[in-house]
Amino acid sequence: xxxxxxxxxxxxxxxxxxxxxxxxxxxxxxxxxxxxxxxxxxxxxxxxxxxxxxxxxxxxxxxxxxxxxxxxxxxxxxxxxxxxxxxxxxxxxxxxxxxxxxxxxxxxxxxxxxxxxxxxxxxxxxxxxxxxxxxxxxxxxxxxxxxxxxxxxxxxxxxxxxxxxxxxxxxxxxxxxxxxxxxxxxxxxxxxxxxxxxxxxxxxxxxxxxxxxxxxxxxxxxxxxxxxxxxxx
Length: 233
What we know:
Elements: E1 2-5, H1 8-11, E2 15-18, E3 24-29, H2 31-34, E4 39-44, E5 49-54, E6 56-63, H3 66-69, E7 73-76, E8 82-87, H4 89-92, E9 97-102, E10 107-113, H5 117-121, E11 124-132, E12 138-147, E13 158-162, E14 168-174, E15 179-184, E16 189-196, E17 199-208, H6 213-226
């Protein structure tokens, strides 16, 4: 078979596979056609989708000990560059509050556990995550609900609603066992938490390349707090 690359300037790049009679067998499109980085589509000669390929990124989470610097955790990439820092009540001094910062220390997400009488009577705990607009004002990003332990098992369904719109995600699996996934409304996995060297203090998170990673690690920060780990106190 023969592979012919297509120029980006003409039709978005990618390439075509033909047989000895120059009949098109496969067409492969990348981000120049799809408009999404880290994504490829393999189609047959008639244009029917055969395979969707997502690039994945692996990041490593390292929990910080409470006795040294107040807990929380740090997220690094494959080159050990710090991407995010997450602080909980051991640093902030406020229960039910989390802050996610980038590697330079800029606040990206502020996460609160909702309180009050209405929340006390609810069968769910509710967490809300806020980002900051260009004026520094908080803007709602997501709401996470998890079943209270006295109502359901802590392994029950955890749902995240994203603002604006009606998009939602679910957490499936066991976070304490480092075996869980964040799944979108179509059932597609956008991030996975996995063991790393058999340690609960260091674990990996595998994400799709085009996923909002601040959102992913904001959700993981809440899971960490729910299960009484490094961000709780």
